[in-house]
Specification:
Helix content: over 70%
Number of strands: 0
Strand content: under 5%
Number of helices: 2
Order of helices and strands: HH
Distance between the termini: 39 Å
Largest sheet: none
Low-confidence stretches: none
Mean pLDDT: 86
Amino acid sequence: MSQFDNSLSDLSNCIFKLKRDLIRKTRTIDKISFINNHVLRTPVTSIQGLLYLLETLNHKEEVWQLIGLLRKQVEDLDKVTRKINQSTSLEDY
């Protein structure tokens, strides 16, 4: 084999490994995106809906304070899940 053939073979092996790594990373991003969109987002949106219903009822001041604290936490979690969605979007690549 010539030096050219060896270089070509080395290059081909390198491309194969890079392609394999890219496929693995893409699958990982897909899994993270699925978990975020379905496993995390579902409880977040459910809590948001329940908070909306709770807010329509009459409560003592202490309950309103707890609702406010809960709303703040769910809004923070909502921001995190949306940020994960943006980070794992393949449209950005």
